[in-house]
Design brief:
The chain is an alpha/beta fold. It contains 19 helices and 16 strands. The chain has helices at residues 18-30, 62-72, 82-85, 100-103, 106-110, 114-129, 141-153, 183-189, 191-204, 211-220, 282-293, 300-314, 321-329, 359-369, 372-385, 398-402, 416-429, 437-453, 475-489; strands at 7-12, 37-42, 76-78, 133-137, 159-163, 224-231, 245-254, 257-266, 271-275, 296-299, 333-336, 344-347, 350-351, 391-395, 408-413, 466-469. The longest helix has 17 residues, at 437-453. It is elongated and about 80 Å long. The model has no long low-confidence stretch (mean pLDDT 93).
């Protein structure tokens, strides 16, 4: 499994529908070559069906599957026989055992051996196809998380990307099993997505979902509830607390048909915290990342720079608390988006977008930012700006002091030599005098020292931050890596990537 592959793989059990079509389209979009290399497999895996489940009845119509796959942009469809996948017979084959914690709840708790069967076949399919990316539907969220763990634990060089659940015109989640439903059953089945959606809307208004009430409503609608659980989306363990993101998932029987569905419960939109020393390429990368994902961009460094500019302009004496308090009390800081990714910054009515990048401000900003009253005033403002989430904030203490509950925390850094080179280019581009690389490197080290040793909110990597060292990486590579890390924490269903 070591050679580089450009194959994007969509494994299915057939019965292709609009949900699979989205997977194929996402795989095609992700391809680096045009047209890409998208392979769809159709294999009804006996190992993932229980003795009383619908293995025999599962929809099989290869001609229809070929047509759908081809119309949606697949380059090839592969429908292996049971002998090809399990030459010695399904039960004479080595099996993968999914850790109990990942399958104790939701479907795993009700379908013994199901996920072992899924993991076994997917590993086999991956070994046979050797793709670069595996595309899976978020509809089967537990399967998606289990397979992600499988690939990570076994160090397989395959990326996994999840694609949001696709719903039919009436809101029912697309599934190959929907074709078992009569018209009347289909109407009843709609109670499931409606109840889940109403819980997701409620949580935004601070209402805690009452699981017993939802269950009884589903039962009154003619559905038999197999489970309804609220879990942590990544550890798949029940959660009582109102954490920013949880998963409310259910399985019901409508007649003899088993249907699953879920909703993500979000108390606010996602927050990404990007910290790191000066010159690590934070701003450029963060702005591009924010644009790629449609998040608001909060440059907290610019806020400290703007206050530094004001303090210098008004000649505020930092040693004189009353002068500092007066300046901070009348502070009016505004960020306005502008066309060229650069944010317009105004302070007390002055547009300081360019001025805050001057070497004078750069030289003084660490000292100003180390003043406890400055820190306190700006941290409060930043917290208020992030109250609804939906933003990426960059700075030096975002993950530790400003948004300790951010869904994704990144510590972006680079060697001092690399940072000096980037700083020189930046100064040149902005038309400032460029000191020697040695001087810049010395200044950078000195600034790191002040920032990491100050008493209030020193520059430190949050324990749960992912560190990225950007030496030798170009902007696009870093942005792409950030998007992948974001997607590991935030389902597409919760925060879709804008199509621009
Ligand atoms: O989701 C499915 O269709 C199946 O579980 C999979 C991943 C193709 C494995 O058989």
């Amino acid at each position: 499994m070591q050679q580089k592959s450009d194959l994007n793989f969509v494994p299915t059990m057939g019965g292709l529908h609009k949900g699979h079509c989205q997977l194929i389209k996402a795989a095609q979009k992700f391809s680096t070559t045009k047209p890409g290399v998208v392979l769809v497999s159709v294999f009804v895996n006996p190992l993932q069906f229980g003795p009383n489940e619908d293995f025999q009845a599962y929809p099989r119509d290869l001609e229809h599957d070929c047509e759908v796959a081809s119309n949606c942009g697949a380059n090839a469809l592969w429908a292996p026989s049971i002998d090809e996948i399990f030459p010695k017979g399904p039960n004479a084959h080595f099996k993968v055992q999914v850790p109990p914690t990942l399958q104790a709840h939701l479907c795993g708790g009700k379908r013994a051996g199901h996920f072992d069967g899924v993991a076994t076949v997917v590993l086999r399919l991956l070994n046979l196809t050797k793709p670069q990316v595996l595309f899976l539907g978020e509809k089967d969220w537990q399967q998606f998380i289990i397979l992600r763990h499988l690939l990570k634990d076994l160090d397989l060089p395959v990326k996994v990307l999840g694609v949001a659940t696709v719903r039919d015109f009436d809101g029912l989640a697309m599934s190959s099993r929907n074709q078992y439903l009569s018209q009347d059953q289909r109407k009843k089945a709609l109670a499931l997505p409606r109840q889940l959606a109403s819980a997701a809307n409620g949580i935004k208004k601070g209402e805690i979902p009452n699981l017993e009430k939802i269950k009884s409503y589903l039962m009154q609608s003619g559905l038999e509830v197999e489970y309804l659980e609220k879990v942590d989306p990544f550890h798949l363990q029940p959660t009582e607390t109102n954490q920013p993101l949880s998963l409310l998932a259910a399985s019901v029987r409508c007649g003899r048909t088993r249907l699953i569905d879920h909703a993500f419960l979000m108390t606010r939109k996602p927050i990404v915290a990007i910290d790191g020393p000066a010159g690590a390429g934070k701003s450029t990368v963060t702005k591009n990342f924010a644009r790629r994902l449609g998040l608001l961009y909060l440059d907290t460094g610019a806020m400290y720079r703007a206050v530094t500019w004001l303090i210098k302009k008004e000649g505020v004496n930092l040693q004189e608390p009353s002068e500092l308090f007066k300046a901070l009390n009348s502070l009016k800081l505004e960020f306005l988006p502008s066309k060229n990714l650069e944010q317009e910054v105004t302070i007390n009515g002055y547009n300081v977008t360019e001025a805050i990048r001057s070497p004078d401000v750069t030289a003084a900003v660490s000292l100003v930012a180390a003043q406890p009253p400055v820190r306190k005033a700006l941290t409060e403002q930043q917290k208020a700006m992030g109250i609804d989430g939906g933003l990426v904030a960059e700075g030096r203490d975002i993950g530790t002091a400003v948004f300790p509950g951010a869904e994704l925390k990144i510590f972006l850094t680079a060697s001092p030599a690399e940072r000096a080179r980037r700083r020189a280019n930046d100064l040149r581009e902005r038309g400032f005098r460029v000191p020697s690389l040695t001087t810049l490197e010395e200044q950078i080290k000195e600034r790191d020292q002040i920032d990491s040793t100050r008493q209030i909110a020193p520059l430190t990597r949050a324990d749960d931050a992912s560190e990225i060292v950007t030496d030798g990486m170009d902007i696009e590579e870093v942005v792409q890596l950030l998007v992948e890390l974001f997607r590991n924490r935030i389902p597409e269903e919760v925060w879709p990537t804008p199509s621009n």
